[in-house]
Specification:
Elements: H1 2-29, E1 39-44, E2 57-61, E3 110-111, E4 115-120, H2 129-134, E5 139-147, E6 154-156, H3 160-169, E7 173-179, H4 185-198, E8 204-211, H5 227-243, E9 248-253, H6 254-257, H7 265-268, E10 273-277, E11 298-307, E12 314-319, E13 322-323, E14 349-357, E15 360-364, E16 375-380, E17 384-390, E18 395-400, E19 403-408, E20 412-413, H8 424-427, E21 430-431, E22 440-449, E23 452-456, E24 468-473, E25 477-484, E26 489-494, E27 497-502, E28 506-508
Parallel strand pairs: 1-11, 4-5, 5-7, 7-8, 8-9, 9-10, 10-11
Antiparallel strand pairs: 1-2, 3-13, 4-12, 5-6, 11-12, 14-17, 14-20, 15-16, 17-18, 18-19, 21-22, 22-25, 22-28, 23-24, 25-26, 26-27
């Protein structure tokens, strides 16, 4: 009898060891380097979880979001693009966070509420924060700056102050983050000090984050750093932020965090909140947290969200904490009113040249023909302005009589002695069958993309209701039925729909 009991115990032990080995092997075989983003529409953040006093309804869609072909090309990509093999795992649960064990500088009192928010930068363009607030968003993590990956210069996000100002105005609690490429702890402290100074006049209630990506790219300033060095740099930033009176949080993807894969996670998570990016996971009971074995205080569960008031895809987050009030700004002196960066979604190459109108051209307050764009001055042939930038989207930035304006590049010339030309609009028959300000000259030709171009529901990249409906790639064809040379747009028929795109990214199929 005793011998049988011993044999049974050995058998059970062997089975346990065998199962654990299989699970460990499966985990090691998992390719944790690739995550794909899902498209999530945030319609009302007050219904997502019965466990939370705040809520959201999240509807998944199959639409594809894409940045404009004329957008800046050096936007860093947050995650790679294939599914994580652990997505189906339901056995792991997020570690319960003991808030008292983590560094916290809140003076209004942190609580254990589940709260819902977004994180944004200038790459979301001009945000209508009133609409964002009406959707139920409770907090916004706003990018305030970055260290240039080439020059090492610290630069402000051009929409940071506007975003903080407008989020505050509409009752959305503010957090912040900085995109770091620091290569020493001294540089990390410099970044933290810059951030603390930059945000001092705003009520920063949510944490201030350290965001570092792309360090394995050979072009990165951080490429030669060891994991220990990178982790120590991050900790230096987080500690300095805490010393400045803000709650720090560390951002990274689940694949970088898990099992100390790319960071010394086990060291960082003992003291600082973790903000984890992990996409395509089950969000049906999001208030319980992701199926992840480490500490996760904030979960960025998609980078492809759709939120009212934001024309571009946006990161959507859930925080497993909230606050009893709103922090006061550390610097209560009067601050200047911030304006939105009208060039946020366009790349302007710097130039310095004198131009005049070929005939006449309107100078606008923003590079758009939409209803939110106002004609300020009309430039006549013979009158001169200084061109300071040219965008591939077909717009020029001009300085005229001390003010900055925007004009369609094709209506300008550097030949100051050129005689006045006949206006293209008066010389051509234009179709007038839409409510858009943009009028199109009728044509009928087959076109394709030079590379890739977005097809939109209206001829604008800056209007909040301009939506990417489809993407045309090189080799795919559409029929161009109209062209507008003044604003650089084409009207095309594609898959039975009438859509619009930037003409300079198309070519005629011979």
């Amino acid at each position: 009898m005793k011998k049988v009991i011993i044999s049974g115990g050995i058998l059970i032990a062997c089975l346990i060891i065998g199962i654990a080995s299989i699970l460990l092997l499966n985990n090691k075989l998992a390719d944790d380097n690739d995550i794909s983003a899902e498209v999530i529409s945030v319609e009302d953040i007050s219904d997502i979880s019965e466990a939370s006093t705040t809520s959201t309804t999240i509807a998944e869609t199959s639409s594809e979001a894409s940045t404009e072909a004329s957008s800046i090309s050096n936007i860093s990509v947050t995650e790679a693009s294939s599914s994580d093999p652990q997505a189906a795992s339901t056995e792991e649960t997020g570690e319960k966070i003991n808030l008292s064990d983590l560094v916290n500088a809140s003076s209004v009192g942190e609580n254990s509420s589940v709260t819902y928010g977004i994180d944004v930068s200038r790459f979301q363009g001009t945000i209508d924060w009133a609409q964002v607030a009406s959707s139920g968003v409770e907090f916004a993590m706003i990018r305030v700056g970055y260290r240039d990956s080439s020059t090492g210069e610290i630069k402000a996000d051009t929409n940071a102050k506007y975003n903080m100002q407008e989020a505050e105005k509409n009752g959305i609690k503010i957090g912040a983050y900085f995109f770091s490429t620091a290569v020493t702890t001294d540089e990390a402290k410099e970044e933290a000090n810059w951030v603390a100074s930059y945000i001092a006049q705003y009520p920063i209630t949510y944490p201030v984050g350290y965001n570092c990506e792309g360090f394995e790219n050979t072009s990165s300033r951080q490429y030669s750093l060891t994991q220990d060095e990178r982790s120590n740099i991050a900790i230096a930033f987080l500690e300095q932020i805490y010393n400045a009176g803000y709650t720090p949080i560390f951002y990274a993807s689940r694949n970088e965090l898990s099992e100390n894969a790319k960071w010394n996670t086990s060291q960082i998570e003992k003291k600082y909140k973790i903000w984890m990016a992990w996409y395509n996971q089950d969000t049906s009971n999001i208030a319980k947290g992701p199926a992840y074995g480490g500490q996760c205080a904030m979960w960025q569960y998609t980078n492809n969200g759709s939120v009212a008031g934001i024309s571009k895809p946006v990161d959507v987050d859930v925080a497993y904490f909230g606050y009893n009030g709103i922090e006061s700004a550390k610097d209560t002196s009067e601050r200047e009113t911030a304006s939105a960066d009208v060039e946020a979604l366009m790349k302007f190459d710097p130039v310095d040249e004198t131009v005049t109108a070929k005939s006449t051209t309107n100078l606008r307050d923003k590079p758009s023909q939409g209803s939110d764009s106002t004609v300020k001055v009309t430039l006549q042939n013979g009158q001169t302005a200084q061109r300071t930038g040219i965008s591939p989207s077909g717009w020029s930035r001009l300085v005229y009589e001390g003010n900055t304006y925007y004009a369609v590049s094709s209506f300008l010339t550097t030949d100051l002695s050129a005689p006045k030309q006949e206006s293209p609009q008066s010389a051509q028959q234009t179709s007038d069958n839409s409510s858009f300000k943009t009028k199109f000259t009728d044509c009928n030709e087959t076109v394709t993309a030079k590379d890739v171009v977005n097809l939109r529901n209206k001829p604008s990249v800056t209007d909040a209701d301009s939506v990417v409906v489809a993407t045309l790639s090189a080799g795919d064809t559409a029929v161009r039925t109209g062209i507008n040379n003044e604003y650089g747009w084409s009207r095309v028929e594609y898959n039975g729909q009438t859509l619009y795109c930037v003409s300079s990214y198309l070519k005629v199929v011979e």
